[in-house]
Each structure stands twice: as C-alpha cells, then as structure tokens.
Amino acid sequence: MNRDECIEQIRTRRDWDLLIIGGGASGLGVALEAVSRGYKTLLVEQHDFSKGTSSRSTKLIHGGVRYLRQGNVTLVRDALRERGYLLRNAPHLVHELAFIVPVYRWRDLGFYGAGLKLYDSLAGRLRIGRSKLLPPSDVMRRLPTLRSRGLKGGILYHDAQFDDARLAIDLARKIWRLNGVVANYVEVVSLIKAGGKVAGAAVRDVLSGLVYEVPARVTINATGAFADHIRRLDDASAPPLVAASQGAHIVLDSSFLPSGDALMIPKTEDGPVLFAIPWLNRLLIGTTDVTVKEVPLEPVPFAEEIDFLLRHAASYLTHAPERSDILSAFAGIRPLVSAKPGPTSALSRDHQVIVSDSGLVSLVGGKWTTYRKMGEDTVRTAVKIGRIEGRRGTDTRHLPIEGSQPAADSESDRLHPNLPYGREHVLRGIREEMACTIEDILARRTRSLFLDARAAMEVAPAVARIMAEELGRDEAWQLEQVEDFRSVARGYLPVA
After folding, report:
1. Buried b (16+ CB within 10 A) or exposed e, 324-358
2. Please, are residues 62 and 263 in contact by the beta-carbon 8 Å criterion?
C-alpha cells in the first residue's frame, strides 16, 4: 500500500461509487465487500486502521457463548458461520483454540454441557470440534495452575483466536490489491449535499492539512463508536443510536496459566463471562462491561475494572496476579445499538444498517467475527439506495485474505529483549503498511504496546530513529513522536 498514491486519487478522482468512513472492522468489511463486486471504492480513516476498538478486542473469533443465554440464537448461528469462513480464508491469522469451562458444582456440568452442545450444533457443517466433558484430572493436566479445590470436572469446547490489528492491516492490503483505495489519517470534516441528499464529503489530510472534496454516489458511515458524530454532520438533531460500553483487559506473563488452552469463567459477580487466553506468548484476561457516556479516542481502563479482573483471576488461579504483574492494560469501546438508555450488558451485539432521509448509510453495532456479513448487508443496502448498477464479483465467503504473521526476530536482532520484534518489522510497517507514527508501529503493526507497555516505551526512541531515517524526518520529529507515544502508553500502565 502506498499512501501518497491514495492521497493523489482522493485529490483527483470524481467517480467514486462508495465513500466509506471508518477504517476499523466495520469499514474494512464494507470496503472489501464493495471492491470484491467491482465498485469504485474509497475508504478514509481519521487516525490509523483499527486505532479504536478494532485493535482492542479479546482476540476471539467466536459465536458468543453468552449470547445463547440472552436467547439470541440467530446472532450466534451467523457468527459461528462467519468463524468458519475466517478460519478458511485467513488461516495465517485465525486458528482454532480449545476452551475449558471449569465446574465446581455437579449441577453445572449438565447445564453448561447442554448449552455447549447447542453451540456446537449451531455451527452446522462449519463446526470445528465437539464439546465434551472432562474429568478433574484432565482439566488440571491442561490448565495446571487452575484452582483444584472443589473441582468436579470441566467442559471442553472450541472457538477461534486471531490478531485483530494484523487482520485489519491484511484486509486493507487486500482492498488495495483489488483496486480499492484506503487512506489513514484522512478525516471527514463535512458532508457534501446536492438536492438535500448526501453526495460525498469534504476530507482533510491530517498529515498535510489539505482539504479535498470527494464526490460519491453513496456515503457510508462505518465509524463504530463514533457513528453518531458522523450522523450529526448529516442531521444535527439526529438522536443517538450508539450505547457505548467499555471492555477492559489485562496482559500477564504466561506463567500465570502456562497452557495452550483458554480458560472460560462462565459467570462473574457482574454477570458477563470472563476469559483467560494464551495470546502471543502472554496471558490475556478480559473483559468487563461498563456503560460509559463519553467515547474517547484513547480509552483507559478504570481502576475498578482492573480490580475486577485481578479479583476473578485470583479466584481461579493458584498464583494470584497483582497490579505490579500487569504488563499492559487496555480498553475498547463497544458500539452497541440502543434507542433508549439502560445497561449495555443486556444489549445485543448484532448490527443494524440505517439509512437517513438524506441517504447517509450508517452501519452501527456488530463485532469482529461478523465483519464480513456486516459488509455484505451494508453494501446490499448502499447499492439499492444509490441505484448503482449491480455487478457480479467474488463471493467474500470464499475470498482468501492473504498475508503472513511476521516472524519473531532472534534474540540478538530484537529491539528489546522482552519483545519479539526487530528493525525489519518497523521497515515493513513503513514501506508496505502505511505506518506513519511510532504508535502505528508499536501498537498495531507490531503488538508491542499490548504485550509490554514498559518495554514499548523504552524502545520508542530506537523506533523513532529507524522511522526518521526511512522517512527523512529530523530530530525534532523524533522527540515529538517519542513523547506523543509515551503519553499514550502511560494509559496502558494501571495506577498502583
């Protein structure tokens, strides 16, 4: 991908079929669906690809066991099908993961076992494994640091895991290869209207400050938690649709649960399930579900969320983690759909496609697992309301998403002993993946900030030097970049 070429097309082209606002899971899914059908497609993102919640997920591609309890069978079935497509289309990033639900009451063996059998059946032909009961000895063999006192057994089931930010980059690259245009650091400042209908947008290149008018037959708002902001550019009186919910995670050393399997805690004191998952040689624990009124670009876990995660980890693990053991803590905002106030924990994770009177198409809600179906539903609506000629293209259910997981550098080549990344990872991010800042490299082209925030802060000057050499930046740029990154990174270190 070449950002300069993208900006040139934004400056000169006047024949866009679809303008998509938002470079997270939602926007990328819409853009991929559009270009796979042959539509002239432009995607713009105000910051970096997957800067928001799309890089801050629980790293799961799953049907959502908890949604069965809410009775949302359709959402679970659709998500399980999409899980199957992703396992097939992006095997370099999405892989099967075994989960174990420990049971400490006899009656729960049957209850959870029956629920997970239903979960299996909803996947149909795309099922990736059968759930089964485990005796206590097998549970302890697979989860050796689990609390054994009172353990009656467990249930094993299967879902999938991925690297969210890396999938976002590979999707952007796929869109580019299919002749779509994607550009990060391009902000929509206003919508263009003709005859009372949305006809594109004025966008600002954040890096140069230049503003361009982009005409488009249909404009799609796929900005996740920020969807209401774009809706109000269309109609200042538009009522809110997004109910924001924050989910926090902590990252620990893998020694707290040295296993290739994940632990699923089916019920917590606040209701939602909790996961302890092996991820990139660390242990990821999450998530919470806290209603929030504001939607910041850089959310930070609340102290009570950290306490909640540590408390529940201590209840299930033989070695109770403390605040000082946390390598990184991060939070994301779920853009749930709600027409009235209330607790977000009860809201569906399904998506909706909404068309305003002026023709602005907004995709609201959803989750990573169903990003492809979200894109399919949105493009179907956009083509209809824009009266765009139908075109036959590749069915995205069968569209490979090429890419590769960058190999971990040898210890001698690493930029930091606690991180598996070296100079080549930085150069790849700049040359091939539109990385523009230190944060792009350390948070999303590599996962350094999420794996060890202190180490990421320490390595920032070295990354700045590599980027400055490659991009022709001066020392003042390096100093500013390091300080900007460290300001963000401090939010990943929980206050003691």
Report:
1. ebbbbbbbbbbbbbbeeeeebbebbbbbebbeeee
2. no
DSSP notation for 38-79: T--EEEE-SSSTT-SGGGSS-SEE---HHHHHTT-HHHHHHH
Closest C-alpha among 3, 26, 73 to residue 379? 26
Per-residue b or e along 105-143, where b marks 16 or more CB atoms closer than 10 Å to that residue's CB: eeebbeebbebbeebbebbeeebbeebebbebeebbebb
79-90 as b/e, with b when 16 or more CB fall inside 10 Å?
A: bbbbbbbbbebb
Contact 119, 68 (CB under 8 A): yes
Q: Are 203 and 211 in contact (CB under 8 A)?
A: yes
pLDDT tens for residues 67-109? 777 778 888 999 999 999 999 999 999 999 999 999 999 999 9
Of 380, 249, 385, 369, the closest CA to residue 309 belongs to 249
Backbone angles phi, psi at 247, to 5 degrees: -125, 125
Cα 396 to Cα 34, 218, 380, distances in angstroms: 10, 21, 13
Residues 450-491 pLDDT 10s: 999 999 999 999 999 999 999 999 999 999 999 999 999 999
Rounded distance, CA 207 to CA 291, Å? 34
Q: What is the pLDDT of residues 354-404, one digit of tens each?
A: 999 999 999 999 999 999 999 999 999 999 999 998 777 889 999 999 987
Work out the number of other CB atoms within 10 angstroms of the CB of residue 239: 10
